[in-house]
Amino acid sequence: MTNNESISEAKQLIERIKLKYPEFVDKTASESDIARLERKLNIKLPKWYIELYTTVPLIGAEFGVQEDEPIGDYDGVSYMIWGSVDDIIEENTEYEPGTSALKDGYVFIASCSHGSGDPIFIKLNSDEPGVCRIYHDDFTKSQLAENVVSLFKNAKI
After folding, report:
1. The pTM is what?
2. What is the pLDDT, as a whole number, of residue 124?
3. Cβ 59 vs Cβ 83: under 8 Å
4. Using alpha carbons only, how large is the chain's radius of gyration in Å?
5. Strands (DSSP E) along 2-157, which ranges?
6. Helix or strand or coil: residue 2?
7. In what residue span(s) does the Knr4/Smi1-like domain sit (predicted)?
8. 3-state secondary structure of 126
9. Which domains are assigned to the chain?
10. What confidence tens digit (pLDDT) does each residue in 32-43 have?
11. Strand ranges for the chain from DSSP E
12. If DSSP codes are grouped into helix, strand and coil, which group holds residue 100?
């Protein structure tokens, strides 16, 4: 995964969201937000992650991922809302599975927007950071995308 590819796919996703939802208010993180995030989580964030949060207005974006096979009326798509820096800090320092996930290298990225309460994380200390949901009842992981590029590229609006 290249830095440019993840940024490019994220920007294209935001454009798709804006086309469907013109009222979408886009937000990015500031450099000071990122510094606070690194300090609170006690980690060094990769350059691509910092660039993603500071240049692409993903914060608050809602989109889906094909999590399950469609069955009957259920299309199998799970929707998420991309988290802010405050959300990331809160999920990874105050709640489970976030605090345990952080110890394993997973950082919160999105919350379920349809009520499951099972947050979505990305594993940052990996060459190909996979995107997964971590269930709060037993901390099992369900992979949603191989990496953020495929998450953005295959997102359902």
Report:
1. 0.92
2. 86
3. yes
4. 15
5. 62-66, 77-82, 106-112, 120-123, 131-134, 141-145
6. coil
7. 29-151
8. coil
9. 3-153 (3.40.1580.20)
10. 999 999 999 999
11. 62-66, 77-82, 106-112, 120-123, 131-134, 141-145
12. helix
